[in-house]
Recover the amino acids of this structure.
């Protein structure tokens, strides 16, 4: 009986010590910061009454927040990306919103819902009050 009690106490001490050691290891490790699924390069397609428009979208994040740059396929070389304004990401609805001004059509407002490997939504041409479908898929690295 005494041997059983001693064995049980040793087992309890070992289990207690190992749980303290493992929780100490976890407490000293800083949690990894989650990677924002929006970040990176995307290829977009806008299906407008004037035809299909394609291009690239680069989404970055720094201490000041999100930045989005758009390049339209066929733009003259050296033009550089069009930087957008009013960028917001709604965590609850997983919706990315931003706006930009087009020389020909005026202000455009984009709303895209993030999926696993694509974003789907609309681009509003405010001058005409019309929404056109827009999709974006992750670009090949």
């Amino acid at each position: 009986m005494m041997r059983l009690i001693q064995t049980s106490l040793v087992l309890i001490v070992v289990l207690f010590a190992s749980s303290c050691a493992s929780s100490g290891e976890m407490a000293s490790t800083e949690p990894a910061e989650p990677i924002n699924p929006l970040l990176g390069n995307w290829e977009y397609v806008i299906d407008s009454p004037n035809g299909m428009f394609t291009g690239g979208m680069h989404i970055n994040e720094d201490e000041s927040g999100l930045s989005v740059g758009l390049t339209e396929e066929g733009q003259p070389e050296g033009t550089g990306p069009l930087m957008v304004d009013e960028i917001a990401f709604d965590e609850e609805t997983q919706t990315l919103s931003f706006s930009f001004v087009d020389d020909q059509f005026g202000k455009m407002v984009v709303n895209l819902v993030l999926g696993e490997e694509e974003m789907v939504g609309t681009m509003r041409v405010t001058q005409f009050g019309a929404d056109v479908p827009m999709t974006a898929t992750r670009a090949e690295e």
